[in-house]
Every structure is written in C-alpha cells, then in structure tokens.
Amino acid sequence: MPRVVFDPSVPSIVVDLLLEAADGRSSLVIPVVLDTGASLTIVATEIVTQLGYDPANPELDRQRIIMGSGIEYAPRTTVRSATAIGQRVTNLDVLCHDLPPESGVDGLLGLNFLRHFKLTIRFRKGIIDLNRER
Amino acid sequence: MAKKLLLTKEKIKTKYPNEWLLLEDYELDASTTLRKGRVIAHSKDRDAIHRALKKHKGNLCVHFTGTLPPDTGVIF
Questions:
Q1: What's this model's pTM, rounded to 2 decimal places?
Q2: CB contact under 8 A, B53 and A18
C-alpha cells in the first residue's frame, strides 16, 4: 500500500514527484507540495524544459490561475507520466510556473493528479495513503 | 575523476544542510520517496541547481534538505 510518512509539525507536506521526459528515455524527481487546494499540478518552467517539453511554445494553452498573490496566466502542457506516493498517472496536464525558492519546492501536486485515487491524510500521525478506488 | 559516494537521504541531509541538491543514481522506495543518491551538485541557490541540470543527462533528482521556519505560513 503506497504510504508516505511526514513530520506533522512542518508547515506544508512535501513529497517527491517523478516526471517522465518527453522522449520517454529519462526522468526527473522534484520536491512538490501536496496541495488539495490546487486544481492543477504545477511544475517549475526550468524543470519542464529540462524534461524536453516546450513551455515557450506559443501554441500551448495558457491557463488562467487564481493564486494567493492574484490572477496569473501560465502555459499548460502534458507530461507523459507523473508518479508520486507510489501511484502513476499518464498524460498529466501540468502548469509551467515558478514558485519562490524559499518554498523549498519545484511545484505543487494538485487535484488533477490526486483525484485519480483515494487520498487519506492522517495529520496527527503524519501518514499519507494514496490508493486506487475499488 | 572518482564518482561521489552513494549516500542515504539521512546522510545527505547531515552533510548538506539547508541546500538544494542534484542527485544521480538515486533510489526511490515504493512510495516514490528518495532513499539514496549520489550528489553531483549542491547549492543554497535553487537557480544554481536548475543551471546544473542542463549539464547532466539521464535520470536525475532535485532535492532540498531544508525546512521552512516553523513561524512561516505557506499559501499558493
């Protein structure tokens, strides 16, 4: 059963996200915040570029996003696969957007990934379970 | 040049506190959590690690060993 243990005293929950490159030949793991308040998964522009995708492609849709700091627009692309907390989603849409370095992460794991599964967060014990619904 | 040692996540955190790291030859557990890796770049500056990414190919891992100060809130 995919399970991540986290420190319940930390201000936010950080997990590792494994992203598959555009050519399917390599992958990159980045730290992301688990964010059930984010409708979409966000990945830093530099990371998306490194994986062989093209966030600067003018043909990409630009998604309107409402953030704590206001409304912004970010290019949206599709990664071949994304894996976190032991679960994999193929053809996942991600927004290319940079979060402040002080956040300690390179993105957010949002609902478009999490809603594929049954997510259980036990805050007092610091345990996350992510399972496929039967 | 000799390859850097393969270190556990705990040893990496002790050796490179509050730093951004770039790792190769990394291992993840069944929950996609980093277990160990070989540090090929480290910096207090995230942009330096993003720049280092461009010089390497293959399966890589970006990792941050710091934590937010307890009195800091996060809202995106």
A1: 0.95
A2: no
